[in-house]
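Hey L., structure's done. Input below.
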Amino acid sequence: MKNPAEALLYALEKYPERLAMVRLDQLVVDSARGNEKRPAYLKLAVPDEIVKALRGAPERRKDLYLLVSIPKEVMERSESSIILPGEA
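Output:
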C-alpha cells in the first residue's frame, strides 16, 4: 500500500491489537517555536528500534511510522453518545 492513510485504516480495521499508539505530548523532551533563523522543532524520546528503523537505508525499513492529528472536534464527537446525521 503506497497510501499511508489506506494502510492506517486497514490496520485499524483488521489488526488493531498490533498497532502501537502513544500521545505525542508524552514523548516530547524539548521543543522550540520557529523563528527567522530556524524552523520549529520537537525533540522526542522514542525507543532505539524506532530510531534505527527511521534512520536506516530505505530498503531495510520495515514498519510505517505516522504522525496523525485528530482534531479536537472529532475527539469530542467520539466521546459523545449523541449520533449526528451522517455518523450512523
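The helical segments are 4-14, 48-55, 72-78. The beta strands are 28-32, 41-44.

-- N.
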